[in-house]
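B., you asked whether I could sanity-check this one before it goes into the benchmark set. Here's the sequence:
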Amino acid sequence: MGNSKSKKPVFKAYNPDQLSLLPPSLEELIPENHVVRIVRKVVDQINIDSLLSKYEGGGCSSYHPKMLLKVIIYAYISNIYSSRKIESSVQRDIHFMWLSGMQRPDHNTINRFRTNKLKGVLKEVFGQVVLLMVDAGVVNIKRVFVDGTKIEANANKYTFVWGKSIVRNKQRIKDQLQELWDYAQGVAAEELQDNNPTTYEEIDSEKVSKTIASINQALSNKPVEKKVKQKLNYAKRTWPKALDKYKAQEQKMGDRNSYSKTDEDATFMRMKEDHMRNGQLKAGYNWQISTSDQFILNYDIYQNPTDTLTLPKHIESFKELYQTYPEVLVADAGYGSEENYELLDKLKIEGYVKYNYFHKEQKKKYKDNPFLVANLFYNKEKDFYVCPMGQRMEKIGSSKRKTKSGFEQNYSVYQAKNCEGCPMRSLCHKSKSDRRLSVNHNLQKHKSVMRQRLKTEQGLKHRSQRPADVEAVFGNIKHNKNFKRFYLRGKEKVAIEVGLLAIAHNLAKMAN
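And here's what the prediction gave me:
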């Protein structure tokens, strides 16, 4: 013990001002299997003619787009999404310095390249990267797993416009305008004879202004209540402006039910990542991807929260990228609809797409319930159902419905002849008249085919693999890459962000 105290610590030589005979090359400082080498190699192989066409001739020299693309992709691999942080990394990090060739673009240059130059061309770049991986035997585009997730927009949660609120406010103006007209008719009917009241089903600022002017003129020489005068002055001053504002808001909203004033392309959606746990709606986007072996093969950004409506466009964008449709498509019950099943059949894509109640159908309680439509006996030849008491339910008509996307569904309507006095009536249905059924036979046919396919050995394999394939990708991006909120605003810019995330994810996985 005493000898150990007499020993002196030994340190490695340290001289920060020591000069090297030959300065080290950055190439020597980067490991051979580092992901940054994959980024450089892949970007050097792709065709960027569409990106080069964005540059105009003349003026000062520009940073090479391949250099900027490499830097931004590697930044997204490194979980760096801010243009200012990318600028800082280019000045300090040897990997960024190696990619940039010691050039130092500032944050404005980086952001302009990301938001302006990559707009409209990044999807093509992404497709080329995937095809390079296909040629290398890394990934196969014949079988895809499809899913979506909602990511919060870069928008204020409390600056919003609701479609229902616009409808309610317009209806309030209609009702009050009708009340003013009715009052004027009671006081000055003769003066209003030449201005016959029209229905106020559809109103605009011009129509409201003319109506209020007619009422004011008719009441000009009449004794009018003070309250009515105040109301007319308020209506003349505010209603036309309000209607113009509502019209502009409706145009921005389109077929959505809401939008954010901070990011007008963002729609309010219910998010799974709800840190306050109060079910609050947040402005966001619906990000849809197709994957295979956890590689992203296709991506799209949608403003509607419903996955069902996104599948047709998502499949078409896949075709635009690779000039072919996938042979097999696997998705969860959120995509199970008659329209989507019809589309898969038309395109000859072998679908493994669940529908709602698929898992519920497997339970004994569901199978043993004799009152459910799915469990009633159906005679296909004579087109009638048989109720649990053995009574025939004949077809009495048909109906049509249109989905939000415009797809037309056909329903057959069946009715029992006499339910009065039936001992099972309270268990069978709660309507006051005889029981009616509304059945979509085409949808039932598709469900039957899908049910059999999903229960096969191959179907079970695809169903078990889907969560591990596509949901794991979202988990990696949201939690490992800590990307839970967009940095840019507007649908086009958000699409660039997810495109860069998709390329970064694929190259990082390829390197591993």
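One thing to flag: The mean pLDDT is 90. Otherwise nothing jumped out at me.
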